[in-house]
Design a protein that fits this description.
Distance between the termini: 42 Å
Shape: elongated
Order of helices and strands: HHHHH
Radius of gyration: 16 Å
Structural class: mainly alpha
Oligomer: single chain
Length: about 90
């Protein structure tokens, strides 16, 4: 059993990356079609809702790209997610 897990060790970070990227991509991409109603509901400017959806989508993509060896992409995604989550608080 432990040998099986050792084989998966190099790919372990992908489980986290795919999960996090899926969450942010889902939430970002589903905001675009309903941006106007969401802006009215949350009493925010429409531009801010589009900016939020774009940041979530780009951050999700950067998390996946960062797994392919581009460390800067992961760091940028972390910075984007920090801004998004600070706004959510």
């Amino acid at each position: 059993m432990l040998n099986f897990l050792d084989v998966l060790k190099p790919y372990g970070h992908w489980f986290l990356r795919v999960g996090l990227a899926a969450i942010f991509l889902y939430h970002g991409l589903t905001k675009f079609p309903v941006a106007e109603s969401m802006a009215v509901m949350m009493d925010l400017p429409l531009v801010l809702v589009y900016l939020l959806a774009t940041m979530e989508t780009i951050g999700g993509i950067l998390i996946l790209v960062g797994g392919m060896g581009m460390e800067l992409a992961t760091k940028l995604a972390g910075a984007i997610f920090t801004i998004v989550m600070a706004g959510a608080i």
